[in-house]
Amino acid sequence: MIYLDHGATSFPKPPEVVRAMEAALRTCANPGRGGYEAAEAAARQVFGCREQAAKLFHCRPEQAVLTGSCTHGLNIAIRSLVKPGAPVAVSGFEHNAVTRPLHALEARLVVCGRRLFDPEDTLAALRRALRSGVEAAVFTHVSNAFGYILPVREMAGLCRSYGVPFIVDAAQSAGTLPVDLTGWGADFIAMPGHKGLLGPQGTGLLLCAGDAQPLLYGGTGSQSLLPTMPEELPERLEPGTVNVPGAAGLLAGMCALERMGPENIAAREAMLAKQCARGLEELGMEVFSGENQGGTVSFRPGMGCEEAAGALSDRGFALRAGLHCAPLAHESAGTLETGTVRVSFGWNSTAGELRAFLRAAGSLPPARG
C-alpha cells in the first residue's frame, strides 16, 4: 500500500512511538495516585509529554492539557469562551469539529473568507466581522480538505486589537508549520496527537492561555476534598485516568519530529503537493491548488470521486474522497455536491510514491476534454 492519507492520520508511526507505548504498558501505573515507582514512572511520562509540547509550541508545561483528540480540545475551548447564541467569526473552511460545537450552542456563524488560497480575502472578511461586533473567533490554521494555509498570526493580531478571544484549530498544521501560543496571543490552540505530531490515535493537546472551563468533572488525584474541579491547569481539564501509553507515544512522536525538523517535513510535503498538483493538471483533472498551500491537494476527475478513490484503492493507494467532515469548506470551494479526492502527504512520503500515484491517476478519465 502507498499511503497518501496523512490528513486523516500519520501512518505508519515511527518505530520509537510503538516501543514507547509498549514500555509504558509494561512499566507505568496511574500517575498522581501513589508514590511507588510504577506511578512515578507514569507521572514522568506524562510530564515529559507536556514539557516537549511546551518546547515545540512556546508555552508552559502546565498549559499543555492532554485531551483525547483535537475535537475534544476544541469543545473545551469553545465551551469556555462562546456564550449561547453569540456571533462567532469562522473561516469558510472549517471542519465539523468547529462548526458542530458552535451549532450546539446556537452560535451565529459569521463566515469570513470564501476564496481558496487567498489570505487577503480572509483577513478583510475578519476585519469586517470584528467591526460588526463578533464576540469570539474560531479559525482553522490549514484546511483539511484543500490544504489552504490561513494567515493565523495576522488574524490573532486583529482579534487582540479588538479584544476578541481567538481559538485555533491546528489539526493540520501542528508538527509541520510553526504553532506559537505565546507569540500568536491566541486563547486556545487545539491539536491532535496522531497527525503531524506522529503519536497514536486517541491523543491530543489543548494549549491554554485563556480562562478554561471544565467539560468533564471527576477525580484528578489531587485536592480530593474539593467539591469542584481544581482551579489550576492542567488538572482542571483532566478528570479521570490519563492515557499514559498514549502520552508516552505522543512524547516519542514529538521527539522524533524534533529530530527530523518540522520545517524539513513541511518543505518536503509542500514540494510534493506542488508536483502532485502540476501532474494532475497535466492529466486533465480539476485541481485545487495555490500559493498558500500545505501538503494536501484535492482534485476532481471525470467520474465520481468516491468511485475514483475506490479504483485507486484497488491499485494499492490509500486516499480519501468525499466531503472530509468539512461541508463548509466544500461549499466555499463549490464542491459540496461532488466532494473531491484528497491526496495528503506526510512525514515519510517520497517522490517515488508520488510518481507511482500519478501513473495510476492517469487511468482515471480527465475532468475535461
Tell me what the structure shows:
By secondary structure, this protein is α/β, with parallel strands linked by helices. The protein folds into 2 domains: 2-10 and 262-361, Aspartate Aminotransferase, domain 1; 15-260, Aspartate Aminotransferase, domain 2 (3-Layer(aba) Sandwich), CATH 3.40.640. Helix content is 41%, strand content 14%. It has helices at 15-27, 37-57, 70-81, 96-104, 119-132, 152-162, 181-184, 244-260, 262-282, 305-314, 327-333, 351-361; strands at residues 2-3, 64-67, 87-91, 108-112, 136-140, 166-169, 188-192, 204-208, 286-288, 296-300, 317-318, 320-322, 340-344. Helix 5 (119-132) runs parallel beside helix 6. The longest helix is centred in the first third of the chain and has 21 residues, at 37-57. It is globular. The relative contact order is 0.17.
CATH H-tier superfamily of the largest domain = Type I PLP-dependent aspartate aminotransferase-like (Major domain)
| CATH overall fold name of the largest domain | Aspartate Aminotransferase, domain 2
> Major beta sheet, specifics?
7 strands, mixed
Instruction: Please trace the helix and strand order, writing H or E for each element.
Output: EHHEHEHEHEHEHEEHHEEHEEHEH
Q: Name the helicity range.
A: 40-55%
Any idea of the CATH class of the largest domain?
Alpha Beta
Envelope shape: globular
Architecture (CATH level 2) name of the largest domain: 3-Layer(aba) Sandwich
Number of separate helices: 12
Order of strands across the widest beta sheet?
Answer: 2-8-7-6-5-3-4
| Fraction of residues in β-strands | 5-15%
Radius of gyration: 21 Å
Low-confidence segments: none
Q: How many beta-strand runs?
A: 13
Structural class: alpha/beta
Q: Could you tell me the mean pLDDT?
A: 97
Provide the number of structural domains: 2
Q: Please report the distance between the alpha carbons of the first and last residues.
A: 31 Å
